[in-house]
Amino acid sequence: MVITKEHWLPSEEELTVEEVKIGTPALRAGSFQYGKYCEDVNNEFMLCRLEEKDPRKCLGQGKEVTACALKFFRLVKKHCQEEFHQYANCIDKSSVDLNPR
C-alpha cells in the first residue's frame, strides 16, 4: 500500500500506551487466565480488525486490550505474586518450548 497525502496516520500520542513489561515465561504462565479475564475486549478488538480491515480504526480497542492486560497482571501481582512467580519459573526451567504441562 502506497501512502499518499489522502491517508491519515495516527499521531505519536495516539499510538503511545503503557507497555505490559512481562517476560515470556510469565506470559505463558498467565495465558489461560488472562485469556478468560480479557476475553471480551480481545474479541472486540479482533472483530474490529476483521470488519474494518484497517488497524488505524481500532486503536481505541487496542488500548483497551493493553489496559486489560495491565490490570490483570497487576491483580496477579497483588493477590498471588509468589505462587505465580514459582509457576512461571517452573515453566521457564522445565520446558524447552515454555509449554505449561
TrEMBL record:
Q: Does this entry carry the keyword Lipid metabolism? A: no
Keywords recorded for this protein, A-Z: Disulfide bond, Electron transport, Mitochondrion, Repeat, Respiratory chain, Transport
Q: Which residues form the signal peptide?
A: none
Give Gene Ontology CC terms.
mitochondrion
The protein's matches in PANTHER family, at most eight in alphabetical order, are given as: NADH DEHYDROGENASE [UBIQUINONE] 1 ALPHA SUBCOMPLEX SUBUNIT 8 (PTHR13344:SF0), NADH-UBIQUINONE OXIDOREDUCTASE (PTHR13344)
- Please report which protein family the annotation says this sequence is part of: Belongs to the complex I NDUFA8 subunit family.
Its recorded name reads NADH dehydrogenase [ubiquinone] 1 alpha subcomplex subunit 8
Please explain the role this protein plays, according to its UniProt record. Accessory subunit of the mitochondrial membrane respiratory chain NADH dehydrogenase (Complex I), that is believed not to be involved in catalysis. Complex I functions in the transfer of electrons from NADH to the respiratory chain. The immediate electron acceptor for the enzyme is believed to be ubiquinone.
